[in-house]
Amino acid sequence: MIGFHETPTESAPAFNAARQLPPLVDGIFGPKGYLVRQLGLEHRAPQAQMARAVAESLGGLEPLLFEAGTGVGKSLAYLIPGLIWAQETKRPFVVSSHTIALQEQILQKDLELCRSLFRQVPALEHYADFRSALLVGKGNYLCGTRLKQAQARHQELFKGPEMMELERIAAWAATSQHGMRQEMDPAPRSDVWEWVSADGHACNNRNCTPETCFYRKARQRIDASHIRIVNHSLLFALLAAGFYPQGEKTGVLFPEDALVLDEGHTIYNVATEHFGEHLSSYGLKRALRRLWYPEKRQGLMAKWPGSRGKDEVTLALAEADMFFDQLKDTHLKDHKIIRLRDGGWAEDHLFHVLTAVLKPVDQNWDRMQDGPDRDELKGARDLLNTYRVSLLNCLQCAEEGSVYWLEQTGQREQIVTLRSAPLSVAPILRERLFHRDTGVIVTSATLAEGVDMRSFQQKIGAQGQRAEQTPSPFDYERNMQVLIAADAPAPNPRNARLDNEWLAEAISFAVQAVPGGSLVLFTSYRDLDLVAAQVEPELHAAGRPFFRQGVGGSRGALAQGLRDAGNGVLFGTESFWTGVDIAGPALQQVIITRLPFENPTHPVAQARAERVQAAGYSPFGVLMLPAALVKFRQGIGRLIRRSDDKGIITILDPRILQKPYGRQFLDVIPQNDIRRFDRHTRVEAFSIASRLTTQ
After folding, report:
1. Is-above-0.90 flag for pTM?
2. Could you give the CA distance from residue 330 to residue 253 in angstroms, rounded to a whole number?
3. Which of 212, 250, 364, 380 would suit a FRET pair with 49, their CA atoms being 20 to 30 Å apart?
4. Angstrom distance (rounded) from CA 486 to CA 503
């Protein structure tokens, strides 16, 4: 058996990952392998197939797309080969997930299972001392240098309550172990935290050390780790900002690393979200007030002599207010979101005003001595310039391959935001993921948009890369019953009230016909709210705990509430279609209210549809239907999470029976015994189906 050696010797030749890793992994995952013999786990042939493919991908430093059905055991199939590869090659192994729940599962359960395996097998015990680290954004850490800087300049930066908050943060920092804002209770004020977090130019290797800065201390742990856990949002934000090995260096996020993208079906949308412009009225004004806050007479310019620079910022703040108010009045008066099709849709006066702000900033920065204060000013200057360039790009609709739009955001929709996104993320992902001469593994239970992964590969720029699929080992024929309402009204915006009344009555009946818990999936918040208003009183009267997205806590808290309730009902949309893992009687039914087609009126969807149509294809067939099939599969996948789970899928959208494309939705349901019901037969249908949950 191949072992790990800190210092290779002549008697212990260097590890050849391409040749040695696959057979080593076979010995762990085989029918009589270590997982079976040492941990007593059931042998899963699909898991062994995936582990072998991962080992070959890492050994050959080649990309891999692997769809593994629910229950295959994906995380162990990539963690065990990845941990061995990282220690033998002394290269970083990065695992990215879409949800916090999966991150927690990997860190708290799966990695400890790997460690237990390694410790119990003499031939593998030298792998048991692997080091892991969680990557989070710099803004989550306190920087000691910036804290001292803020304390020294408190009169320029803070007044009254803000100064008291700075003192509270300083007192907490003296005893904190990790220096993360999530550890503070109550959470720190954002307007003070931004001056002391590591997300600033003054926090750098020149000014900070692991002894003085929590972020540098965390980075030291990260650099020493073998496996690094991150989420897709941070990963793609870093890639979009250019934080990846440049030039001839291999690797995606770190030099010579390998990367697993779990919950990989989400990366197309996450990449679309991050590879574009994003300029909000709130963000721009905050960047300006960082330099000078006229009403409070605070900011980096506070000690500057005279009014030079301060007048320019004051004018820019007034101009920003006028600019965004005008956009709201002229473009967003009747719509929350509008597409910007051509340049010149608004005057560029604000761009020139921002340019005028930069001139005195640059002049003052040139005269300053090197140190944290100069770095801080440069950071504020660079941020403002980024916003300035983004503004000009949006005003000109500069990128031919991008779509631009304007929207109202924030809880009260008072923030005006300029956005853009690439029409195709494939070229970007091809360059930054799949052509990096390293192992990049994309996995999920749902990568195929139909019978194979070709459509998905094309969308993410992975054409020609190795792609494999293996089904779930679960017995869906025995443990799942599918019911479809044949008499449901087809979705019709003109009859939304009647549609929701029908949905409310059907949902109320369905959830009370099943003894365990139910997850009800919607495709819009509006429908969820309207139906919830009708159903909630009935459920409370029946003694059924009710949970509703947007009320009563985070996504994780609501899911935990459903787990704990045992017979609760959870109404969710969008994020609840994927990543929710509730096993046992606490989830015995998933109700799909509508087939999950994306909103075709969003500017990105519009622009992509126009491009597909111009090429002579159907936007519905090329874009909407494949995406809906993946989301539908994800929704169905919430039900059976363990081999002994049993339950019902209830579908309340008649289009699955009436439309030609309905056959494709039926084909991806992992159960052939599908029963129709209507108002007259539903009692019998649910009576028969619910017997499954009590067996």
Report:
1. yes
2. 42
3. 250
4. 13
Neighbours of 576 (CB within 10 A): 23
Q: Minimal CA–CA distance to 165: which of 196, 187, 141, 189?
A: 189
User: What tens digit of pLDDT does each residue of 137-163 get?
Assistant: 999 999 999 999 999 998 889 888 999
- pLDDT given for residue 452 in this prediction: 85
| Inter-CA distances, 630 with 184, 577, 649, 662, Å | 39, 10, 16, 14
- Report the C-alpha gap between 598 and 628 in whole angstroms: 7
Confidence label for 7 from pLDDT (cuts 50, 70 and 90): very low
pLDDT of residue 500: 86
pLDDT tens by residue, 311-325: 999 999 999 999 999
Handedness of CA 103, 104, 107, 112 (dihedral sign): negative
Report yes or no: 588 and 650 within 8 Å, Cβ to Cβ.
no
Integer CA distances (angstroms), 617 to 167, 294, 448, 663, 664, in order? 62, 55, 20, 20, 19
State the greatest distance between any 2 C-alpha atoms of the chain, in Å, as a whole number.
83
* Pairing status of strand 569-573 against strand 518-522: parallel
Q: How many CB atoms lie within 10 A of CB 430?
A: 16
Q: Which amino acid is at 668?
A: V
Distance, CA of 647 to CA of 529 (rounded, Å): 26
Residues in contact with 456: Cβ distance below 8 Å, sequence separation at least 6, in sequence order: 65, 265, 268, 447, 448, 449, 462, 626, 630
Spatial separation of the C-alpha atoms in residues 587 and 631, rounded to whole Å: 19
Q: What's residue 11's pLDDT?
A: 41
Rg (Cα) of the chain, in Å, rounded?
A: 28
Which residues partner with 134 through β-bridges? 229
Please provide residue 187's backbone torsions phi and psi, each rounded to the nearest 5 degrees: -60, 150
Residue 115 DSSP one-character state: H
Of 420, 277, 416, 421, give the one whose Cα is nearest residue 333.
416
Instruction: Place 2 in a pLDDT band, splitting at 50, 70 and 90.
Output: very low
Q: How far apart (Å, rounded) are the C-alpha atoms in residues 61 and 74? A: 19
Which pLDDT score is estimated for 8?
A: 35
Q: Are 366 and 381 in contact (CB under 8 A)?
A: no
Q: Do residues 601 and 551 touch, judged by C-beta distance below 8 A?
A: no
Q: Which of 313, 327, 256, 257 is nearest to 285 (CA)?
A: 313
* Sign of the four-CA dihedral 244, 432, 403, 262: negative
Q: Residue 670: name the closest of 462, 531, 471 by CA.
A: 471
Helix extents (H) in 174-253: 190-193, 214-223, 232-240
Four-CA torsion 369, 373, 378, 381, nearest 10 degrees = -130
pLDDT for 13: 63
Residue 674 has φ and ψ, to the nearest 5°, of -110, 125
pLDDT digits (tens, 9 = 90+) for 88-106: 999 999 999 998 889 999 9
3-state secondary structure (DSSP) of residue 32: coil
Neighbours of 273 (CB within 10 A): 18
Q: β-strand 415-422 against 278-280: which pairing, if any?
A: antiparallel
Closest CA to 554 of 582, 576, 525, 535: 576
Which residue type sits at 447? Answer: L
Q: Is 446 strand, coil or helix?
A: coil
CB atoms within 10 A of CB 379: 18
3-state secondary structure 539-576: HHHCCCCEEECCECCCHHHHHHHHHHHCCCEEEEEHHH
Cα four-point dihedral sign 67, 69, 70, 75: negative
Confidence of residue 334 (pLDDT cuts 50, 70, 90): confident
pLDDT tens string 202-240? 999 999 999 999 999 999 999 999 999 999 999 999 999
Inter-residue contact 229 to 103 (CB < 8 Å): yes
